[in-house]
Amino acid sequence: MGAGFLVVVAIIAFVYFAARGRAERLREQMQDLLRRANERSAANRLPSESMIKCPTCGTYSAPGQQRACDRADCPYR
Ligand SMILES: [Zn+2]
């Protein structure tokens, strides 16, 4: 017991907290990556729950991708 012991304890504490800080940063980066990947896939996906039904012909289409049908009164032509 003495100064040498204290130095060893200080080094262990430093290494412990440095490793924990790095793990925390890595975890945050992973979560950020996952979140961005989810946002990208959500933007690419065409969710069926947000499909818009044509009030005239009843055809479902993704928002912004409405196609005109054969009906003369289709609102999407
Ligand atoms: Zn239509």
Characterise this structure:
- The mean pLDDT is 84.
- With 77 residues, the chain is mainly α.
- The protein is rod-shaped and about 95 Å long.
- The chain has one helix spanning 3-44, and strands at residues 52-53, 60-61.
- It binds zinc ion.
- Residues 54, 56-57, 59, 69, 71, 74, 76 line the site of zinc ion (ZN).
Using brief descriptors, characterize the structure shown.
77 residues, mainly alpha, 1 helix, 2 strands, 55% helix, rod-shaped
Which helices and strands appear, and what pairs or packs with what?
Elements: H1 3-44, E1 52-53, E2 60-61
Antiparallel strand pairs: 1-2
Zinc ion is lined by residues 54, 56-57, 59, 69, 71, 74, 76.
Task: Please outline what is shown here.
By secondary structure, the chain is mainly alpha-helical. The protein contains 1 helix and 2 strands.
Spatial separation of the terminal alpha carbons: 87 Å
Total count of domains: 2
Classification by helices and strands: mainly alpha
The number of distinct helices, counting runs of at least 4 residues, comes to: 1
One letter per element, helices H and strands E, the order comes to: HEE
Which residue ranges are poorly predicted, with pLDDT under 50 across at least 5 consecutive positions?
none
Shape label? rod-shaped
Radius of gyration over C-alpha positions, nearest whole angstrom: 29 Å
- Strand neighbour order, sheet with most strands: 1-2
Largest sheet: 2 strands, antiparallel
Tally the beta strands: 2
Estimate the helix proportion, in percent.
40-55%
Say which molecules are bound, naming each kind only once. zinc ion
